Amino acid sequence: MDEGQVGDLARLLREGNEGEVDGLLAARLEEIEPAAARQLFRNPFLTGLQIDRLLGSKRLLSSYEVRMEAARHPRTPQIIALRFIPGLYWADLVRIGLDLRLHPVVRRAAEMRLIERLPALSVGEKMAIARSAAPGVLSALRNDPTPRVMAALLENPRLTEGLLLPLLASEAAQPAVLAVVAVSPKWSLRYPVRLALCQNSRTPLARSLMLVPMLKRNDLESVAANPRLLLPLRRRAQLLARGGQELRI
Prior knowledge:
Layout: H1 3-15, H2 18-28, H3 34-40, H4 48-54, H5 58-61, H6 64-71, H7 78-84, H8 90-98, H9 104-117, H10 123-132, H11 135-141, H12 147-153, H13 161-168, H14 175-182, H15 191-199, H16 205-211, H17 217-224, H18 231-241
Helix pairs in contact: 1-3, 6-7, 8-9, 9-11, 10-12, 12-14, 13-15, 15-16, 17-18
């Protein structure tokens, strides 16, 4: 088939109504190339039965692009979409996890597969994921020990205090990661974040001392009485709690 015929078939698949697409799949399935098949997924009249029929072609089924388009289409039968999820690239898994048109089971499967693959990804790849991924993936990425990954995570508009605070309260958190949160222009302004950082013995002292003057009196007293925290921080909190009149601990 020459390029003109391929282009015509792709246009017909993209623009045909349901009956016309049925006819094309019945008569010309073996002529459809992967690029033309991708156009079919842009047809607003495409049905789940037609997707199933398209994927009956072993040649098209062997194409990554066709499997990816099928997994990302809201009318693809769920069992088929789930079958394709494990073989998708991480960037496509991110997109599926964010696509609210898709069934929650499919989105969750994409998130779980992405989480499984995180340990094998590079720092740069994890940074890209951290900036845009869905909350389910962020709950795994928040434990990454790399400060650059945390900095990228803090840029994600889907990150919430509820996702971030368990890390800030963890005694296993890396000091360098906590330091990134402590200097974040957005997150360091949030009172629960400040408090959690000051109460964590893993937060670098310089960062805790920077944040502790912004705590409320009862929280200052709590920090001052916490034996797990470094003495300079406890003394500073005690001084602030007493209105500048330093007491011994």
